[in-house]
Amino acid sequence: MTENDVYQVSDWKGQGGERWVAYQARLDAMVAVFGEAAIEAAAPVAGERVLDIGCGAGASSRDLANRVGAGGQVVGMDISEPLIDKARALAPQHSAASFQVADASSAELPPEAFDILFSRFGVMFFDNPTAAFTHMRRALRPGGRVAFVCWRSIAENDWVSLPMGAMKGIIPPMTPPNPEAPGPFSFGDQGRVARILTAAGLTDVAITPFDASIPFGKGETRDAALDDAVKMTLEVGLLARSLVDQPDDIRVRAAVAVRTVFAGFTRERSVMIDGAAWIVTGRNPAS
Ligand SMILES: C[S@@+](CC[C@H](N)C(=O)[O-])C[C@H]1O[C@@H](n2cnc3c(N)ncnc32)[C@H](O)[C@@H]1O
After folding, report:
1. What is the pLDDT, as a whole number, of residue 107?
2. Where are the beta strands (DSSP E) in 196-247?
């Protein structure tokens, strides 16, 4: 991966979004506990209005809608049309959640219309995060809250660093991505996150580590779970991107290497690998 190969809006709008749809149920299960922790931090109550930024297929929007109830409102916003289509299809009838295809960093947002800006892993992809949060903060009522979950660094996230290490020598050496370039790990540095939110005008910024084991593969047997984890790694996400243009023999070697490293994390019917996130909260000043 080169510095230019950062996550672009077009990735999510196109193939990235479609792959995410294909794996939606699996991905939701993998990150569910992280989303729950972020929702607890957001502490939504009945009647509140929430903007779910980069809502994807809408799992968090649905959970938030249950919390705010019929008198509340959740707007799930995402740049990916296939993901918003999926979110709409999965939303129960009469849900407090509605969905919109839009870039949250520039979409027209009603001023002071939301009590909470929320996100589960959807705020790390902005080209200019300070400008994006400044823009989104204007949609927050005075005294409103921000709560999101984002990944810590690659080095702290075994589910990426282990397979990445395993692929060394098989695929051409990766230039480490610029840690500040838009992408899943661009909020890994908590100092940077604090600076972005503060520069965007938010106060009471708190950033707390949250660790959890991620169910990376599942199956009836250990071997089946391992196969499943390898398939997942090679087909969706950062490492999948690094293999896109590689010939079949390289992909086969990469699969063997990833399988070997994952074997150490196999349980009876699953592969469980540690994930490390930040739970971030902040507040819009009262006036
Ligand atoms: C890692 S996924 C998380 C999706 C969802 N929140 C979840 O947890 O399942 C990141 C999401 O952010 C969306 N996204 C990226 N940049 C965005 C932007 N500028 N505005 C709105 N959504 C964006 C992507 O399309 C993608 O659905």
Report:
1. 97
2. 203-218
